[in-house]
Amino acid sequence: MTANAPITQDVLTLPRKLPEGGKANLVGMTRDQMRQALIDIGTPEKQAKMRVGQIWQWIYQWGKRDFAEMTNLSKSLRADLQQHFEISIPEVISKQVSEDGTRKYLVRIAGGHEVEVVYIPEDSRGTLCISSQVGCTLTCSFCHTGTQKLVRNLTAAEIIGQVMMARDDLDEWPVPGTRNTDEARLLSNIVLMGMGEPLYNFENVRDAMKIAMDPEGIQLSRRRITLSTSGVVPEIARTAEEIGCLLAVSFHATTDEVRDKLVPINKRWNIEALLESLRAYPRLANSERITFEYVMLDHVNDSKEDAHRLVKLIEGIPAKINLIPFNEWPGAPYKRSSGNRIHAFADIIHDAGYASPIRKPRGEDIMAACGQLKSATERARKSRKQIEAEAGMKS
Ligand code: SAH
Ligand code: SF4
């Protein structure tokens, strides 16, 4: 670990409740927070826990946003809820559908910020790639999101709201009183691989994922949720203990020299420190393999020596290595490795006994691939600037 490494986390986190006078959003509250909120508006303490369970099911199991539909609550309670609370999720501004069925949504959150969410249908599952921050404070040199200056942490409501928004679009809320069957789910998996570093927004990510896993909530198994981190070492054990989902790590290099350049957080927590925390993860989380993500950058990190070094480094860790052909973006300082180099790399890993799937880029025609999530926000920002400029000219 390098002392005083120049990585800071200067991010705005919004308060959970709206300012005085506004209605508080029930979405994103933990069960305890919702219980307290109900007591605060006069629900008797003895009843509060049961009411939380009922409201929780309406919101997260059946996707209802209107208190009037919550028919197992008394009329007066529904009126009280209506007066004090709202059930609000991010607004979808646009939706693009790729030739391969991938859907990319642009959603607007408080403050006029925008984030992207991607739904990837596959034969046996459907994965939603969600964002945890607007932009990212880290500056991985191959990542488009990392070049975006503006950063704010998403609230728990905005994080779980992305899942609720997608379930609206896929039209897969079960009829009240029934449950989803696991086999038939369109949205069966969540990956925290959109914009942002989830472990720099730990509490909100945790609270949102707890809702996704809740048996009276969205009911996804913790093995169907994968959190991807660039390597925020102190939060990795916490992820195991407090979330318990699967872990993916953006490894991307086999020497500190190269990783310092690609994933600058490596200057703070180097490969050795990272591997140490990863070794402890499966036991702590009682989970299976860790996914090592490895972006294939032509002649930067894709040699046969790299592949051999990688195998040595991860020895003893139950792992799968996900090779990601670099997704280029305008002005990117790298090129995608050739197919030959990627296959040669994959063979070495495979021969060492590890699964080494090469990630198939999805939604390329709509710029929905990993690391490309930025352009729409930037465009929107530019157009706001133009609007301001025009307004300035008129006055
Ligand atoms: N901040 C987290 C999660 C978001 S990035 C993290 O870094 O892990 C999700 C994955 O996409 C990461 O492995 C990231 O390194 C990778 N990625 C970023 N930009 C990419 C690009 N241009 N091409 C391919 N993969 C990219
Ligand atoms: Fe942030 Fe992940 Fe992109 Fe790095 S790869 S800049 S951590 S979003």
What are the segments in which pLDDT stays under 50 over at least 5 consecutive residues? 1-10, 15-19, 374-395
Report how far apart the termini are.
54 Å
Q: Which small-molecule ligands are present, each listed once?
A: S-adenosyl-L-homocysteine, iron/sulfur cluster
What count of structural domains? 2
Structural class: alpha/beta
The strand count comes to 13
The name of the CATH topology of the largest domain is TIM Barrel
Largest sheet: 9 strands, mixed
Query: Which homologous superfamily in CATH is the superfamily of the largest domain?
Result: Aldolase class I
Radius of gyration: 22 Å
Binned strand content:
15-25%
CATH architecture of the largest domain: Alpha-Beta Barrel
Quaternary status? single chain
Q: What is the number of helical segments per DSSP (H or I, 4+ residues)?
A: 11
